[in-house]
Amino acid sequence: MEALKMDGEWRLRAESELNETPERHDAEMRSMCDLVLNDPNLVVPNADEFLLRFLRARKFNSSKAFQMLQRYYLMKLKCPELFNCPLPSECHKTFDLQAQCMLHNRDQWGRRVYVIRVDSFDSSKATIEDIFRTNILALEQIVREPETQIAGLVVVLDLAGLSLQHAKFFTPYYAKKMVELVQETFPLRFKGFHVVNEPFYFDAVMAVLKPFLKEKIKKRIFLHGSDVEALHGFLSTDILPSEYGGEAGPFDNRGWYMKLLADEEYFKELERYGYKADEAEGES
To answer: In terms of C-beta distances under 8 Å and separation of at least 24 residues, what long-range contacts does 256-263 make, across chains too?
Structure first.
């Protein structure tokens, strides 16, 4: 099984952080499979590695992992304009904005790092729904990686140039959807949110978000202002773009986009699974 294929360092880390011992892996995977089979309206990929991402996200508690799996597919069913994963080939205009990129290298703790730059958003070229769904595409890509399932993801949110055209991102509706994604729905460990170049009025935005946030997530939000050296205290400069005082060259998402395009068929396959609208009414 996959849990036993990892090298020693990652296997030990999965055991210490996620309770992933060989015995627990097998027992909780069997339980998870039984729970899926007992939900006749739910169709999921026929592979243990798909269910494993949910088990790892819930530290090998099959009951909690299955609840997350149900929420994951209900989210896509009820709000497809935000949560359905688009095909990479449909996203070229959004990627051309150079607003989002998964950095090439992991941080010093093995975590993936995703950078979002608000000043590159152009509402005449991409809607908030386009941006949201492109973020889903990024998450769906990296959640396939066992190392990322274990170590998690860090987000760097650059708010330079935040203006009224971006205000819609932080209305209660979209704020609540983003928080639900992070806290309850997507099978990833979100380990940190680093906000840079935020304007003075960002406190008002945080006031909108905080009612929805669990204490654990609140403690993982760091506001750095224009002090990139403060960011360096959390993320090594060797992986960061030069715009953030790093050594990895200018921000450029083209390499990341090419990787997504190469997996076009995988994303087509994703659309085959989930709940059907008429079958999920009793699940809500």
So the answer is: 256/101, 256/102, 256/104, 256/138, 257/88, 257/91, 257/92, 257/95, 259/141, 260/88, 260/91, 260/137, 260/138, 260/141, 261/88, 261/89, 263/88, 263/141
Instruction: Report CA dihedral (274, 174, 82, 56) to the nearest 10 degrees.
Output: -40
Classify residue 179 by its DSSP letter. Answer: H
Largest CA distance in the chain: 53
pLDDT score of 46: 87
Residue 172, token pair as written in the block: 């209660």
Strands 100-102 and 153-158, sheet pairing: unpaired
What pLDDT was estimated at residue 18? Answer: 96
Where are the extended beta strands (E) located within 122-213? 153-158, 190-196
142-187, pLDDT tens digit by residue?
Answer: 999 999 999 999 999 999 987 766 666 777 788 888 899 999 999 9
Confidence of residue 281 (pLDDT cuts 50, 70, 90): low
Torsion over CA: 98, 99, 102, 104 (sign): positive
C-alpha span between 182 and 75 (Å, rounded): 12
Q: What is the token pair recorded at 51? A: 């269910």
- What is the per-residue burial (b if ≥16 Cβ within 10 Å, else e) of 18-27? bbbeeebbee
71-79: average pLDDT = 95
How large is the average pLDDT for residues 73-79? 95
Q: How far apart are CA 166 and CA 128, in angstroms?
A: 9
